[in-house]
Design brief:
The structure holds two protein chains of two kinds. Chain A is mainly α. Chain A has one domain: Orthogonal Bundle (ABC transporter involved in vitamin B12 uptake, BtuC), CATH 1.10.3470. Chain A has a two-stranded antiparallel ribbon with strand order 1-2. By secondary structure, chain B is an all-alpha fold. Helices cover 68% and strands 2% of the residues of chain B. Chain B has a two-stranded antiparallel ribbon. The longest helix of chain B has 31 residues. The chains are: A mainly alpha, B mainly alpha. At the A-B interface, helix 8, helix 14 and helix 16 of A face helix 4, helix 9 and helix 11 of B.
Amino acid sequence: MSIIDELDPDELDPDELALADEHVITPTEAAEAAAWRPSPGGVAARIVVLVGLLLLVVAIPQIVPDIYTNVVSKAAIFGLVALSLNVIIGYTGQISLGHNAFVGVGAFGAGYALTKMDLPYAGALVVAALTGVVGALLIGVIALRLAGLYLALVTIAYAFLAQEVLFNLRSLTGGGAGQPAPRPSVFSSDVSYAYFCIAVLGVALAFDWRLTASKGGRAIQALRDDERVAASWGINVTSFKLLAFVISGIMAGIAGALFAGIEQLASRQDFPFLPLALTFLVMTVVGGAGNRWGVMQGGILFAILPTLLDRAHESFHFFPFTSVQVTWEPAIGALLLLLTLIFSPGGIAQQQRHLLNWLSFKRFNEPSHGGGISRGGMGARP
Amino acid sequence: MSTILEVLVNGLSFGAVYALVALGLALVYKATRILNFAQGEFGTVPAWIAYVVMTGFQIDGDPVIHRGRLWLATLIAIAVGALMGVLVNTLVIRRLASVSPVTSLVATAGVMTFLIAMQVIIFDPKGRRFPRYIDGGFHMPGTDVIVAWQNVLIIIVLAAAAALLALLFRTPPGVALLATAQEPFAAELQGVSVSAMRTLAWATAGALGAIAGMLGAGVFSSTFSPGLMTATFLIPAFVGAVLGGIASMVGAVAGGLILGITVAAANQIVRTWNLDVPGPPHLAVFLVLLIVLMLRPTGLFGQEA
């Protein structure tokens, strides 16, 4: 492979080794890292910062101006979508270019359940989650036969199918008028709905955390690194891949139901393939596929980016803000995606790795392996 | 009888554009094992450049199009297409930090999004007129089915492009290209410059894309808009390429044409029986993709999946 393999390790300058991109963690180092505990002062400092962050999250719906309360809800929902896509991209190493379809079908499913079937809100959430399961099974069954490239093609074709066919079924989506999707009565005000969305995001984060800590979650991640090796360790490739797709579909379906609640209307203009599906992809990759805190920040960033651009265009009367408008958002997103892929495949999470280490009660400069999109699967064939 | 003929004529006219885009996709895949989602924009961007050349750099409102510059604009467009292919390869694909196929696919999707977004910023998302090379058409003898000359031209161009590409793989550079795709290291040992071969493949795909763009932009009237080739032709072209066997030139042409006829038939079926099904072409494309992947993932002419 590389020249380094052929050289005698003794001749290598240790500084040069440290420059190598992927630092391989030796068992000794791993044991040291596991045994390391922060000092009492360190623990206190970390707890103070974490509590501060938590308070900030709790306060945000109150401190933003009223017109931006819905942007907070949208940010929480995009964070949820990013977590959903992360299960596919970050954990299984597959790709979905059609997440707008999953989210949109969830939104229409919830709207249909609420207005046409008169289900209670919890029932509508279940329906939205079920639409995610059905879509995920449909795509997942195909994914079992194909990896990588062909799967991407199927998801993109599904996205176009959803945009042109499913979202135009008058009985499901109410045609051009859209399908009303009222909020739950307890959370009918904008501020309380923002708290509801944040709470759902919190539940999803906790679920995602426990998932990756579970045997099933580790099995899914083993598939990403090498399917054949995983199979040889007795991991059922078929069921765990399907499980990952179903989990992702459920999260996306619920995100869709929440999204419909912002405007209390699911309308087909809300879920176009261009640019929404690509925004979802971009925020996951830019956030740092495989790292839940990274992708969540990616989701939040791209949820508020249009608002930020709009505000900057209105408030600053100097270059570049005089020409940069909200229409530039997809271009900026795509550029960030390319820059991430080329220079920093671990995305935001890689940039923040020291901070994230510190916050998770580890050493600030803990050695860590690189994350990012499709770390494994080098031998993947279409 | 005339209905069937109409379906065939319509189908072949879409299908020929699908096939032109599919040829570019198959070429890049054959040489570099990358699914190039930017192939559609290798068509739309050169077509916009040609548009700007023909209108004398007027882009606001509905500017006058100077038809006399059509051929000059075509040459410029093809050059721009080839240049875009080279640039995408040099600036993006070769620099990717991870070389897994999924990463390069996401990168080409990023290039596609970026190009479409820039078009929206410059030209606004609205439909415009784009000239055809030959206006008008002729009646099929004995029926009232009209065949547009533009569509005949597209079929001729398609046949020429497919023949040239098929011949390319019989020449020494073509064989070198194949060797590069199969085993870059061994090809390098045999004195083949892998990077030059990949540049050649991307440049050819870019030029092909530009030809598809110039022809496809005029197929429908007043609908030349940002991202046209991606929104209208890219997905069917991909499905056509997969149907034909993704790395096969003949397969790409056959797959594109078959898919065009399928789409036209789906439209006709919905119209004849007055079915309440939205978007029949997209439904047909998705079903064909599923059926092909389920029954024969290698495609009609492919040797490997």
